[in-house]
Design brief:
The chain has one domain: Lysozyme (Orthogonal Bundle). By secondary structure, it is mainly α. It is built from ten helices and no strands.
């Protein structure tokens, strides 16, 4: 009986430590000091592909890494219910248009499971929405999630009031959460992978 009691106590303590770890996770990963914990929770894969695509499209590589993390968790075979594919969850129709604009030939949806192709196309699209919104990162990230049309409407309403788009102006709760998470994670990638994301190719 006593043995069962102590086993039960050990289980309770372990469960309690797990709850504490989960509650501390945001504080630990939001720290300005790089740590093994942040690198474990927020891994960096396909660094060369990220650096190459970011450099070619003049996009912050930490932003590209953050979009990948939030979109797919670095799962190159991820597919969404809407049909988006790969690391940056690129829609085949969007990829087809990017291929046409950039001189790609014989494109097929399966190509989007290739990390180099997916990151190249996703970063190209990220650059396009950054250009659409004059380099405003918040608007561009919102557009990556919700589309440039609707974000353009929100931005126009904000501009009519003489100010830039703010998170509170984003009408979709999912997109507000998405933007907040991408910008938060970008900060962590900048802090924890500064050398890897800026290393020469």
């Amino acid at each position: 009986m006593r043995r069962i009691f102590w086993i039960g106590m050990v289980v309770v303590v372990i469960a309690g430590l797990g709850v504490v770890a989960l509650r501390l996770a945001p504080a630990l990963t939001d720290s300005a000091t790089p740590s093994w914990y942040s690198r474990t929770v927020y891994p960096l894969e396909h660094g060369a592909a990220i650096r190459a695509a970011a450099r070619k499209n003049h996009v912050d590589p930490a932003l590209v890494a953050a979009v990948i993390y939030v979109e797919s968790g670095f799962d190159e075979h991820a597919r969404s219910a809407q049909g988006a594919v790969g690391l940056m969850q690129v829609l085949p129709a969007t990829a087809q248009e990017i291929a046409r604009r950039t001189g790609g030939s014989a494109f097929n949806t399966g190509d989007l499971e290739d990390p180099k192709v997916n990151v190249r196309y996703g970063t190209y699209y990220l650059r396009a929405v950054l250009d659409q919104f004059d380099g405003d990162t918040l608007s561009a990230v919102a557009a990556y999630n919700a589309g440039g049309g609707v974000v353009g409407e929100w931005a126009a309403a904000a501009e009519a009031e003489g100010r830039p788009l703010r998170a509170a102006d984003i009408a979709y709760a999912e997109t507000r959460a998405y933007v907040s998470e991408v910008l938060r994670v970008r900060k962590l990638y900048r802090e924890n992978y500064a050398e890897q994301l800026t290393a020469p190719l």
